[in-house]
Design goal:
Blueprint lengths: L5 H23 L8 H22 L3 H6 L1 E4 L8 H12 L2 H4 L8 H6 L2 E4 L1
Antiparallel strand pairs: 1-2
């Protein structure tokens, strides 16, 4: 399996962030762009839950599906809800997603034992 290229990963991230922001705005009434740190936290929470659940259960979030990316464990299966939520929370810290090994796996993937592949 071929690792997902950085451009596809960035596209997926942007799409997922937009989906989370729109969901948070529609369901809680926060503003986008957020007016204060609390509104930003609400949007970030929506991002973690939406992406974490979808990646954990299905292997792809909305953005990853559009970008042609799948997240899987070494057996080729979705990583599960717990790991999906942890992985997404680590992405929000930014540094784990930026620091990568030779295979292109970020620290967030290494911690949960996942990989992003091109489909």
């Amino acid at each position: 399996m071929e690792s997902a290229p950085l451009g596809r990963r960035m596209l997926a991230l942007v799409i997922d962030w937009i989906v989370a922001a729109l969901s948070a705005t529609a369901l809680t009434g926060v503003n986008y762009p957020p007016d204060d740190p609390m509104q930003n936290a609400v949007i970030t929470g929506f991002f973690v839950v939406e992406v974490g659940l979808l990646v954990g259960l299905l292997g792809s979030s909305i953005g990853k599906r559009v970008a042609g990316i799948r997240v899987e464990n070494p057996d080729g299966q979705p990583i599960g809800v717990g790991y999906g939520l942890l992985r997404t929370a680590l992405v929000c810290l930014i540094i784990p997603a930026i620091v990568q090994n030779k295979e292109g796996r970020g620290l967030h993937d290494i911690v949960v034992g996942s990989r992003e592949i091109k489909v």
